[in-house]
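Quick one:
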Amino acid sequence: MIMNYMIKINVVKTTNEETKVKAFANVVFGNSFKVTNISIIENSKNGELFVSMPRYRSSELGEDGQPVYKDVCNPITKEFREELYTNILATYEKAVNDHVAVMTVGEKERDKVAEPKHSVRMHPLDKEGSNVKAVGQIYIEDSFIINNINVIEGKKGLFVTMPSYKTKKVDEEGKAIYQDICYPVTKDFRDKLFASILDGYAAERDKTVIEPEKNQETELPFKGKEESKEETKDEDDPDKTQEQKAPAKKSKKK
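Output:
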């Protein structure tokens, strides 16, 4: 199987030599689904670079009593993980040395790139007083998973929210604005994806209902990454303006 995707690198520009985050990468699958906030980090012990996927703070505690952070999304096969991480690091090296910050993998002509195949897995929730009706995952080409997909019951019915993080921006009411980490970038794919998520929820709703704490986490992602990620986003990238307001985000907390 050949995955069609494009990698774009935003190098961190700083004079602070102690900064270990060297760049951020965006990956767009099939010109249809975008993953942002992928970090390229320098290992403080040996100086080697490695790729870190966007993460969120879970309710679990480690042996040291500190919160455990989990990936919002990540490759799920060894082969694709090695391919993707190798290509991200190679694109970073080109961005630094040759000022070429983009790599296209697979089909080169944009109009010939097919939408990625996807599937969903939804888990209905039953918590009194909560408007979060389900959480779930999206699978891209059976090689990449996106967690923390929520089905929310609003005033106008059910809607889907993607994993997001809190920005420093506020709306006209002074409430924090949240920006999506992973999201569809075309209307056609968004309609298809969200329909499959809602259909998946409806299909599972009458089968079984589980308690939220026995399923995946729905806390806000990241801790201390918001500022650096927001400052290094590419201002001419129209796809990065997918934003959510705080009310929708707050409903995701348990």
